[in-house]
Amino acid sequence: MIDPVIISIVALCISIAGFGFSIYQWKKNSFIKSAEKAHEVTLEAFELRRSSQDLRDLIAVTDDIDDMEGFLRAIDKVSEELLNALRNPRISLVDAYKAQQKISDLRLELDLLHKQVLEVKRLNNEVAEHERSKNNR
């Protein structure tokens, strides 16, 4: 017969190996979640830079609007810094969420500025239309 102590030792080794494998899986899953979140936030940062360039182009074709180049450069600089931080393969999930929060804040500011520029453009179009109708009379 097999000694019960040997069976207990084998069972203990199997349990320890299973626990070690569970820790390994947890670490890998944590790394994968962080990488997925970093990728998602990276895409958001690229979208923010694209929107910033679109707004820069819209400002260039709109009359009577203040130059927002300094603000837009600051947005580009912050998004570039966030992109550099997100390129770190050992970024934590918390850091990725903080970067996403910062990008969301910048997105809101950029959207507000975009709405203001569109309103100025609409007003300019109405004034130009009014001037044309006044000149046609």
In short:
By secondary structure, this protein is an all-alpha fold. The chain has helices at residues 4-60, 69-86, 93-136. It contains three helices and no strands.
Offer a few descriptive terms:
rod-shaped, single chain, 137 residues, mainly alpha
Helix-strand blueprint:
Layout (H helix, E strand, L loop, with lengths): L3 H57 L8 H18 L6 H44 L1
Helix pairs in contact: 1-2, 1-3, 2-3
Overview of the structural elements:
This protein is an all-alpha fold and 137 residues long. Helix content is 87%, strand content 0%. It contains 3 helices and no strands. It has helices spanning 4-60, 69-86, 93-136. Helix 1 (4-60) packs parallel to helix 3 (93-136). The longest helix has 57 residues, at 4-60. The model has no long low-confidence stretch (mean pLDDT 88).
Mean pLDDT: 88
Number of strands: 0
**Which bin fits the share of residues in helices?**
over 70%
Structural class: mainly alpha
Alpha carbon gap, first and last residue? 114 Å
Q: Could you tell me the strand content as a percent range?
A: under 5%
Q: Radius of gyration over alpha carbons?
A: 28 Å
Low-confidence stretches: none
